[in-house]
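The records we work with from here on pair a chain with its fold. A complete example follows; check for yourself that the lines match position by position.
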Amino acid sequence: MLHVFLLFSSLFSILSIVSGKDHHVAFVMWTYPKKVPFLEYTIDYFLHAYNYNHAGIKIDGVFITLGCENCDFPVFEDSIGKLMKNNITVFNVTTQHPPYSDDTFRQHAKDKFESWFQDMRKDTTNRRQHHRYNNFEKDNLVNYHAVEIAKYATETVDPDFLIFFEDDIAIEKRFFEKLKPILDNYTDGDKILTRVLLNIKKYEKIKVQRANDRVCVAGFFGMVLGKREFKRWKKFQKYNNLGYCGDAFHCYMKLFLNMTLNLSQFGRHIGRDHRPTPRESRYWD
């Protein structure tokens, strides 16, 4: 009986150590000036959740870049200051802008992107008007910056996880509390990725996206990537170094690799709100 008790105690101690592990996380964000101070709202939500409870989660850095050159954006500097006052390390990263203003470069990017879409989606070849490059140019630009920052983050601090944020989101007060068990039970590489925020409201009730599901939740917004998963993404992206749409990766590679995606919703994208307000009670309280 004593042996059983000692074995149980040992297992309990091991489980306690595992569950008590600190997870090292880097947050990635791209921003630019908007009419509404969404970045200010986002950082306030982020710090509210962080100061409420971030036990077990160590933020190795918030990696942020300004998506415009020589633009006036005082909220950007103010937001960095708020993060630093809360002892969060901030990396203000300068990324090289793709030369989309160059017609030759843009035509090359367009041709590569559209031919790649046709290769990946033979079932929709006859409806390629939905896959024209101009429909995805902004997405490619945003995701380009996100990927470049993520690469810099992995080279600089080598985090356990990358989490991709947008600059116009509301997150729950218990965001980090809910994130912790997901990271505790994470097996890096056995999924394409995990989502903790969704951009499309109609998918909020879906918890698992299986390999053969037709559902595709687009973009990098709210993605969590482990080290192996980000390495896999970089390999995939070499197939088309001018195509950066995150949804193209995970929606097609899940079928190719026969893997699943886990979906959670711990906040909301507020950038399309008609009357956005800071500190929404359902997320703040």
Q: What stands out?
A: The chain has one domain: 21-272. Residues 1-18 have pLDDT under 50 and may be disordered. The domain at 21-272 is CATH 3.90.550.10 (Spore Coat Polysaccharide Biosynthesis Protein SpsA; Chain A).
